[in-house]
Structures are given as structure tokens and as C-alpha cells.
Amino acid sequence: MPVWLREYSWRQSGSAVYLSLPVRGVRVTPANIFCTDQYLKVSIPPFLFEAILYAPIDDTNSTAKIGNGIIFFTLYKKEVAMWDSLTLANANKEKLQYLRENAILKAHEKAKEETEAKKVTKQEHKKYALEATMKLEEAERKRIEDLKEKERQKVTKELELWKKQQKDAEKQKRVQKEGELHQEVEKLKEKKKEKMNKTRIANEGTSKTSLKPTKGCHGSYSMFSENLKEEQLPAPRSTATIKINFTSRVFPTALRESRVAEEEEWLRKQAEARRTVSADLSELEDLKEEEKNPDWLKDKGNKMFATGNYLAAVNAYNLAVRLNNKLPLLYLNRAACHLKLRNLHKAIEDSSKALELLTPPVPDNENARVKAYVRRGTAFCQLELYTEGLQDYEAALKIDPKNKTIERDAEKIRHLIQGTTQDS
């Protein structure tokens, strides 16, 4: 049975009521006080104080001070007036019960509204933080693009200057060659002219000392005149174009060496993965269109990983995976982040998922499979599971046998396994 607190004192003004409730010998916290616009309750087991107020109050601005065994209430009235009493007089039991239940119901509704308001405020804060992060990243991306553009313009100017210098040098060489060729032609003309002069002089001397030519001599004149004709060079051969047809191939391997069925299956799976986007995530409705693109989120995660912000990169990859869980590179990149954060079991899970999606094995996904095996093997070794780690490194070596780094790391793991065996 509760002990009702009957001793209290109160006074009022036109706008407020001041209530003093003694609670000596007990510890009071704000959780022991319940107040609505017309109902006040203080429950400190085994003590209980309850009051149906004479008129409504402003429960939002009203206060309660706890100290020295006394609770001092300052209750602000909704309407300026003087009360005849603190509590409602001439109220039967049923009315009191109704007012009590109505006050509790209002308190529950108010608490629910406050919870919803806090939830909305929290979502707005998250959205604002995400937008602020996006703006900073956009500014950084723009700055980097501006630097790239300036560097590109600089390189373009240098290239144009070099081309101009090369063009001037070629022009100078061409002019020089034309001059040399002209000189050679002039020399040939002079030699030919000298030869013709010598022939003409010899012909004149012969005609003076000889008799009239006979019929047989016409042939000699004809032969001599033919010798004086300029030699005619043959015309250059005409040019032609040879057409070569190549076999249409997606992968850079010869048709006889490739596995066409597996390659086509891999291309089909990649196309389906690009088209698979989860659209039933209600909490992502407020995101921009570009933020719903897994490829854009992957690039964002890559930039954050490059800057050392591994947690932010994991968050970006998580959202991308929620949008599309069929892209192996998302799991592969997230595994790298987990390795940096020492989340070794998660790194193993993501690497295994990436290997599961990187099927069938084709030349296009060789590099990704090597990275998946190496990252999972690294996680195994950091968990001191050297046998499993060595198996993954050897699988990576089968795909890329010329990789000296992987071969060196695999040799180190073998030495560790041998040392562990000897110690045991």
C-alpha cells in the first residue's frame, strides 16, 4: 500500500502556482515526477503524491527543483486567473479516474511525438553530414581536376612547341635537300650540254670531209639522231590498298587459345551485375541519383582509401553492396579496407565472396582473382593460420607465376611453417 503525502504548501500569483512538497529521508530523481497540463504525480516508493489541478498549466515551461528534502514546483498557468484551490474540488471518483487516464494518454502521445521528432532530427543531421561530406569531396575532386587540367595544358603547350620545332627542322632539311637536288640537276644539264656540243662539232667535221651520203647512209643518220634523244624514264607504279579482316574478339587472346563459352558466361554475369540495382531501400530515397550508382560509390571509396580514410571507404563500399551485391570488385576493395583496419575475419569473408563472384576464371578477371587470393592469404597469416595462407598464395602463383613479390611472400610463409613445425 502506498503512503499518501498529504503535507504540502502552496501559493499563487495571477500567472503561476508555487507548490512545496516535503520528501525527507528519501532520494528523489526526475524520473519520480510525472506532470501533464492538469495532472501532477510524485511517486517515491512507498510515498505517493497525486493532484488533479484546478485549471490547466503550461507543463512544458513549468519546473521542479529538488533539494534539502523538498520538491519545489513552479507551475505556470495557461490563463491568468486566481485559483480557488490547488486541486479540482467536487470531483467524483469516475471523473478523477478519467482525468488520470487522459493525462497518462496525453503523456504517451507527447513522448511518441518527441521520439518521432528526434528520429526526424537525427535523419536530417545524417543527411546534412552526408551532404557536407559530398560537398567537400566534390570540392577536392574539382581541385584535383583543375590541377590535372593545368598540367594537361602545360604538357600540350610543350608538345605543340616540340612539334613546331620538329616541323621547322624538317622544313629546313627539305629545303636543303631541294637545293642539293637542284644543284645535281644543273650539273647533269651542264654535262649533257657539253656532250651534245662535242657531238655536234664531231658531226660538222665529218660532214665537211665526207662525200654525199648514199642511200645506206640514211640509216646512220637515223641511228645518230636516236642516240641524241633523251632517255625516257618509266612511269611509277600505281598505289593500291590491301584490306585485312580480323576476327572479332572481346578478350585479347587468339580464338584457338580462348575458352569461348566461359568468356561469354563471364561477360553475361558482368552485364547482369551492372543492371542489378536494389530499388527497395526506402531509406535511400533522399539520396541523389549519382549516389545511387554503385560504380560512383566504388570510385568514392577508392579515393577515401587512397587518402587513408578506411572507415569512410568501408561505408561507401557497404552502401554500394546494398545497391548491388553482384559486383566482385566491391567485396575485393572492402577486403583491403578490413585488412588495414585489422578486421581479419571480415577481410576473409569479403575475399571469399569476391572469389565466388569471379567465376568462371577467364583472362579478364585474372588480376582480380590474384588480389583476392593474396588478401585472403594475408588475413590468414595475420591470424597465424599459415597453412591456409600458403594455399591462397600458391593459388595466386598458379594464375600469375611471374609475380616475384607473391613468390617471395610465399617462401617466407613456408619458412614460418617449417619453424613452427620444428618448435613443436
3D structure, described in words:
This protein is an alpha+beta fold and 424 residues long. The protein folds into three domains: 3-90, Sandwich (Immunoglobulin-like), CATH 2.60.40; 108-189; 292-418, Serine Threonine Protein Phosphatase 5, Tetratricopeptide repeat (Alpha Horseshoe). Helices cover 59% and strands 9% of the residues. It has helices at residues 93-209, 217-228, 260-275, 294-306, 310-323, 328-340, 344-357, 366-382, 386-399, 404-423; strands at 3-4, 9-12, 16-22, 33-35, 39-44, 47-52, 63-67, 70-76. The strands form two sheets. The chain has a four-stranded mixed β-sheet with strand order 1-6-5-4, with helices on one face. Strands 2-3-8-7 form a four-stranded antiparallel β-sheet, with no helix packed on it. A hairpin with a 3-residue loop joins strand 2 (9-12) and strand 3. Helix 8 packs antiparallel against helix 9 and helix 9 runs antiparallel to helix 10 (404-423). The longest helix has 117 residues, at 93-209. The model is unreliable at 209-226 (pLDDT under 50). One of its GO terms (biological process) is determination of left/right symmetry. Keywords: Cell projection, Cytoplasm, Neurogenesis, Nucleus, Repeat, TPR repeat. This is Dynein axonemal assembly factor 4. It is found in: Cell projection, Neuron projection; Dynein axonemal particle; Nucleus. GO terms for molecular function: nuclear estrogen receptor binding.
